[in-house]
Amino acid sequence: MKAWRxxxxxxxxxxxxxxxxxxxxxxxxxxxxxxxxxVYDEYDTFISELMEDFMEDVAAVNAGELETPVSVVRSNAxxxxxxxxxxxxxxxxxxxxxxxxNLVDRTDPSMIIETAREADVPVIFFNRELVEEDLMSWNRLxxxxxxxxxxxxxxxxxxxxxxxxxxETDRSGDGVIQYVxxxxxxxHQDSIVRSETSVNALIEEGVQIEKLESxxxxxxxxxxxxxxxxxxxxxxxxVELVLANNDDMALGxxxxxxxxxxxxxDRPAIIGIDGTKVGLEGVRNGKLIGTVYNDKEGxxxxxxxxxxxxxxxxxxxxxxxxxxxxxxxPYSEITVDNISRFGEETP
Length: 347
Ligand code: BGC
What we know:
Layout: H1 3-8, H2 12-22, E1 33-39, H3 45-63, E2 70-76, H4 81-93, E3 98-101, H5 110-119, E4 123-126, H6 132-135, E5 141-146, H7 148-165, E6 177-183, H8 189-204, E7 209-216, H9 221-235, E8 241-244, H10 247-259, E9 269-271, H11 277-284, E10 291-293, H12 296-312, E11 326-329, E12 332-334
Parallel strand pairs: 1-2, 1-3, 3-4, 4-5, 5-11, 6-7, 6-8, 8-9
Antiparallel strand pairs: 10-12
Helix pairs in contact: 3-12, 4-5, 7-8, 9-10
Bound molecules: beta-D-glucopyranose.
């Protein structure tokens, strides 16, 4: 049984007692489960959709029979680790029972861990993965995310299947697919792993490939468009495949071909990762040959389940934790053939 479903059955008194047990800093109102959430950048498309799902889940819990209201204190770190460290301090001062952190700098969680540990407030890191050593440094730290290797593997295989079905992708007819990679942030686990694994998967699938260039575009559509325009200037119509670490950058690449008014038949196959609303639309309208579903609904739900369990000490055993620390949601392929299963219809 899900932790929060079980919680719905708890009485307010029991929940309040559990909260006292959790030993959080300043005391929240009796029975109030207060969750702090700080994100690295609220304008990131994937993160903003994940937060939408999270808030919907919180509303659903509050609309249920839960006698213990759940409230959320939200902050945007706006790409500053220093700001984020301060936000965590403030959340603890405001009596948050648990804090969810989308780290700005995934190599620098030490201040947050120290602050939370002193106040004995559990922390759930999500999406931007800290190194294992940091996660293991205290028993009330958790991580919710996905397996970056799987996303790259699926992206490479999906691209290979497309190329097999559409031999015209090799426009030059030289038997080799000339490709470029649009990478997310330098140092982000998903950029590093996706870029490498996706290419390896293409090779394993027997596709002959040649790398023209890879460019960092920080998950950002406008930056990807700029970088792609530069690559169009360098290679003309020589680019046959664009592997983008996320949908926003894949769409930025498509924007570049639009802005240069390059006809459809001279454009490369472009593939993303995420399955955001705009990404799904891109697959539906043919701008993208596919994407890889980064299960934000599942991640949001897992965060809430874990937050409620960690805050109350109830229901932890029902959660699919690996090593008592990690919850990773699986990725899946999205193409025009199965897209109706995603988006509004996604369970
Ligand atoms: C997503 C990106 C997002 C990044 C933020 C990745 O998992 O695929 O779209 O920008 O996380 O950390």
